[in-house]
Amino acid sequence: MLKITDAVFVTTATKASQWPREPLPEIAFVGRSNVGKSSMINTLANRNKLVRVSNTPGRTRTLNFFDVSIDSHGKKRTVRLCDLPGYGFAKVSKAEREQWHEMISEYLSQRRQLSAVVSIVDAEVGPTGDDVSMLDFLQGTPPKILVVATKLDRLSKAKQKPALHKVAAVLEVPGEAVVGFSAVDRTGVNDVWNRLLATVDARGAR
Ligand code: GDP
Q1: CA–centroid distance, residue 125 to ligand 1 (Å)
Q2: Cβ < 6 Å from ligand 1: which residues?
């Protein structure tokens, strides 16, 4: 049994000096604008409005931190989630894109308590060129990567498995590295949490 006992917004940051200081294990979420990242975080946190779900992509240009407390099989933990600004929004200037890249690179390479990064792709659309670039970039940073393919509910049952295989093939990762997810029917919630908590625990044991 996995139960969320608390979920709170912590802070917003645009630079390293603003990152929250408590040494909680952290998990970051990254994906193209509109991929369903806010919906995924809300679903994992079991809250409707922890993160604002929006139809105006490219708006959030900050790192947003949330603390989520979980009781999993009687084991209680608090983990910190970091919502990274979405990428791939066309109407963004070159300067803004560079600023985004600098902020993300700094965070991913220097955030010591960061256990894992969830790289979100659209199960129906498949990985875009930007998603492939993002994964290549993540593979050069310390945290573990979990690929989660969301909006799985948009595919018929028969098409779900092939779609997840395609995601793995395009991203050149093993099939079992990709988890299917849906914020609509909550598919994958336990699977994603169990994998993330295993990563957090493995790091803590080192
Ligand atoms: P973000 O920009 O990545 O944070 O994406 P949002 O969470 O705001 O979602 C973008 C749009 O996709 C919204 O209209 C959501 O309702 C929709 N959406 C998000 N997740 C899912 C999902 O799992 N299934 C379906 N069918 N739609 C989703």
Answers
A1: 13
A2: 31, 33-39, 53-55, 57, 86, 150-151, 153-154, 182-184
